[in-house]
Known about the structure:
Blueprint: H1 10-23, H2 28-42, E1 56-58, H3 64-78, H4 86-97, E2 102-103, H5 105-109, H6 114-124, H7 138-145, H8 152-155
Antiparallel strand pairs: 1-2
Helix pairs in contact: 2-3, 3-4, 4-6
Amino acid sequence: EQHIEARVSPADVTRLRAFIRDAVHVDDKIIEYIVRLGRATRSPDEVGRGDLAELLTLGVSPRSYQHVLALVRVTAFLRGRTYVLPGDVKEIYCDASRHRIARSVRAHAETIDAYEILSDLLRAVPLPCCPQLTPLSRHTSRMILDTRPATSSVAHPTPHPAAPAFGSTRP
């Protein structure tokens, strides 16, 4: 019998999820980009890709934007940042959304998969521009990954000083 030793507890996972949600900044323009991508799956003609409308019978739902938003926060965190970049969205969008669209009979017949359709839409929806920001310090990274009971600095993180990009009103 094989024994697997737990590295983190469920409480550690909950604490880390809360930290990522609270500490990783997502600018309003990034949120708008995620919404534009989702809308493009329902109305590809709005982004100049009307040809893709015949390949889709159902686009990404607005509720799924929340899942993409959570995934881009985690992506940024794993890259050592407390802010999301448009490239984070591009990196995960097709994988995160391909099961959320329904392809038409034509797309199935022509063996055009969801990833290909979403990739075409990613190329059609313009990226928001972002300033240069700095990654997390080694001290902050160690503090975040420390699995000891939460301290006040982890339980109530302060935003990264470079995070409020674009003059956003979000904290």
